[in-house]
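Exercise 7b. Backbone tokens:
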């Protein structure tokens, strides 16, 4: 195997693929890149067996071939040179040359690298997919005892794609139009949320495989295992607000951020910012006991008399996901959830009810 690539291309590719290699594993080959040179491209594959990537860059290929090399060493070296890089396999070593810099890497046979799933046959191009994923990711559970809730549920069918995330205390939802799936029966999968944080670029082409989720962007094919199990039917349990208020998004965000500095846990382990509503005002208050307190007044539209408490961080996560200049918050009473609507996105937050 012998080829030449641009240093900037290899730096980008190894940095991207390194996100998917295993950092700590008893299987040495999972800490390597699989390099494949052929037909004017260098393809790099990496996987930790839960998620993986196969991506390529242009190359001048003199001799095709495949080999595995250490992830950290190749990525680190490629990131510190600026000239064209020549990679040549001689015996059991991969020789690197860039200008006057030289390096030699030990290798492993390519056939030891685990096979990644092939590219799927049926795909859907959905512009804005990753942006929609990011808008609901805040609601994913961090509780390792609830693996299903540590993923994002993706349902496709009837011309739509529905994204849902919940940790049991809040829900993030986003709906996207998929005309190509107009006559398709519904199918839902749950994908581990950390997978999406590794993806780069505007990946908008996806496929729901039997055991894997596929995402394609530019010259990269990302793949993730699915989380087994039936995702809870949270969409069918959405509350129906009795009224909705409108408030300036940035003013609300800044007021809650300041108030959160004074929030402390009560005897029940809850920490709440209190919202007191009237017809045209919202008073946000927080108390740190003997350490101090804060209060702010905001103008609102459509209010009614109501006092309700929320975890300020949960409230902030939802507010930050809103795209419009005004936040629409649907409410009913102090015990029922708030529903924040933002076009085709919905955010639900359970209140903290003091005894």
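Sequence design result:
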């Amino acid at each position: 195997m012998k080829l030449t690539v641009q240093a900037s291309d290899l730096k980008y590719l190894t940095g991207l693929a390194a996100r998917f290699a295993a950092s700590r594993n008893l299987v040495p080959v999972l800490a390597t890149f699989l390099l494949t040179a052929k037909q004017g491209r260098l393809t790099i594959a990496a996987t930790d067996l839960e998620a993986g990537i196969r991506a390529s860059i242009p190359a001048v290929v003199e001799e095709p071939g495949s080999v595995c090399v250490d992830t950290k060493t190749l990525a680190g070296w490629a990131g510190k040179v600026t000239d064209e890089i020549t990679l040549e396999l001689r015996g059991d070593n991969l020789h690197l040359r860039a200008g006057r810099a030289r390096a030699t890497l030990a290798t492993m046979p390519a056939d030891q690298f685990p096979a990644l799933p092939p590219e799927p046959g049926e795909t859907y191009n959905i512009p804005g997919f990753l942006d929609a994923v990011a808008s609901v990711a805040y609601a994913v559970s961090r509780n390792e005892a609830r693996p299903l809730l540590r993923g994002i549920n993706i349902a496709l069918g009837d011309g739509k794609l529905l994204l849902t995330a919940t940790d049991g205390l809040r829900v993030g939802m986003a709906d996207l139009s998929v005309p190509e799936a107009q006559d398709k029966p519904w199918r839902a999968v749950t994908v581990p949320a950390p997978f999406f944080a590794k993806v780069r670029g505007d990946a908008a082409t996806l496929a729901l495989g039997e055991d894997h989720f596929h995402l394609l962007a530019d010259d990269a094919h990302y793949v993730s295992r699915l989380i087994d199990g039936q995702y809870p039917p949270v969409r069918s349990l959405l509350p129906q607000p009795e009224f909705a208020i409108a408030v300036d998004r940035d003013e609300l965000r800044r007021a809650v951020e300041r108030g959160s500095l004074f929030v402390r846990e009560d005897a029940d382990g809850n920490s709440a910012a209190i919202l007191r509503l009237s017809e045209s005002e919202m008073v946000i208050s927080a108390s740190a006991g003997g350490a101090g307190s804060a209060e702010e007044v905001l103008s609102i539209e459509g209010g009614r008399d109501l006092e309700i408490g929320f975890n300020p961080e949960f409230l902030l996560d939802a507010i930050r996901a809103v795209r419009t200049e005004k936040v629409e918050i649907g409410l009913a009473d102090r015990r029922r959830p708030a529903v924040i609507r933002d076009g085709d996105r919905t955010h639900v937050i359970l209140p903290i009810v003091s005894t």
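Instructor comment: The mean pLDDT is 94. The chain has six helices and 25 strands.
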